Amino acid sequence: MKISIFSAFYPFRGGIAQFNARLVRSLEKENEVSAFTFKKQYPNFLFPGSSQFVGENDNVDKIEAKRIVSTFNPFTYLGAAKKIKAANPDLFITNYWMSFFGIFMGLLASKQKKETVKLAIIHNLIPHEKRFFDKWLNSFFLKRYDGFIVMSDSVRNDLLTSKPDAKYIQLNHPWYDHFGEKIAVSEACEKLKISPIKKTILFFGLVRDYKGLDLLIDAFSELNDEYQLVIAGEVYSNLQKYESQIAASKAKDRIYFFNQYVPDTDVQLYFSAADVCVLPYRTATQSGITATSFHFEVPIIATNVGGLKEIIGKSELGLIVEEPNSILLKEAISSYFENNMKEKFQINIRKEKESNTWAKFANSLISFSKTL
Predict the structure, then answer these.
(1) Is there a single domain that holds both residue 61 and residue 159?
(2) What is Dmax (Cα atoms) for the chain?
(3) Which residues are CB-neighbours of 180 under 8 A, at least 6 positions away?
(4) Domain with 139 in it: what CATH number?
(5) Looking at the domain assignment, is residue 180 inside a domain?
(6) Which of 133, 138, 180, 367 is paired with 158 by a 20 to 30 Å CA distance?
(7) Domain of 248?
């Protein structure tokens, strides 16, 4: 098939770009794939992080994507649609994770040839931080696609609430396999300058208020000095709030806060050092962090929000905390270590690896597209 994909790609950074780089590499083994991406993704003044782009020294998969559209410049929308149309795709794929993109991503699909199948991979439909215009923008977008891929019950339910007649397929989020393999705990801890003998709890990923890092810090503060907490990810909300909370914690000397975007080459350090990864989220759909953690065979403790329970609990790949609550998180963490659950969960993770490959995801996507 001739396939065109629009999404975030290199030089943009982040989980969506990583997801689509792996998808392109799987699809291009048996198809002709053209990748398209943003000229500018967000206005700088609206972007909460230090940069939207990978660093010069980041070792990422540099997908050769044509940069065709600026989201905040409507005059680029029709030109972008024409460039995709000129590639004459049998299948047009886009990725949707923010209602802000609804207008131009809807137009990209509507301007393609009638015989081109339009397929959207929905990472998130209902924003964690809701706005009054979300429903209208989502509706505009959804009407212009033939089919959808979802990766959790939560997103499936949101899709069917917004578009009851939607044609969709639900697939597991493939596990990331491009960060390298685990290294020795002692080596990882030495490079991170943390203790190699303490029980290591990891919070990984961009820090936003809905992710509940404050709950984890409170929970950790009640654990004894056998534990250490590693926080790795750039803060996209109020940095001072977290710094003040850590400074006031009686466990502050055992909290290591790496407030930075973690390049692909360094991801293995954090997961190699970790005994468990904690997702104390207040809201969620699915999470790319699970796909990374399980690649490194690190079990997860997560709150029962969105699709986390179906990913983690169904196959016993970790523990589920029934609500975002610091006391319950503390109890779960204590139970995990006191009952030596790590090895049991790691055995289950290894059993699941073959069910969550990129090749399986790509093949299922192609098969579904042929039914539309």
Answers:
(1) yes
(2) 63
(3) 265, 267, 268
(4) 3.40.50.2000
(5) no
(6) 367
(7) 185-354
Report which of 12, 121, 257, 306 is spatially closest to residue 290, judged by C-alpha positions: 306
Measured at the CA of 137, the angle between CA 69 and CA 12, to 5 degrees, comes to: 35
Give the single-character DSSP code of 111.
T
- Rg of the chain taking only CA atoms, in angstroms: 21
Does the residue 48 lie in any domain? yes
Per-residue b/e over 143-168, b at no fewer than 16 CB within 10 Å?
Answer: ebbbbbbbbbbbbbebbeebbeebeb
The lowest-confidence range among 121-130, 168-177, 302-311 is 121-130
190-226 residue pLDDT tens: 999 999 999 999 999 989 999 999 999 999 999 999 9
The model's pLDDT over 72-128, given as tens digits with 9 standing for 90+, comes to 899 999 999 999 999 999 999 999 998 889 999 999 999 999 999 999 999 999 876
- Model confidence band, residue 306 (pLDDT cutoffs 50, 70, 90): confident
Strand order in the sheet with 117-122: 66-70, 32-40, 2-6, 91-96, 117-122, 147-150, 168-170
Say whether both 159 and 277 belong to one domain. Answer: no
> Alpha-carbon distance 178 to 57, whole Å?
16
pTM here? 0.89
CB 151 within 8 A of CB 173: yes
- Sign, Cα dihedral of 53, 59, 61, 64: positive
Token output for 249? 């914690």
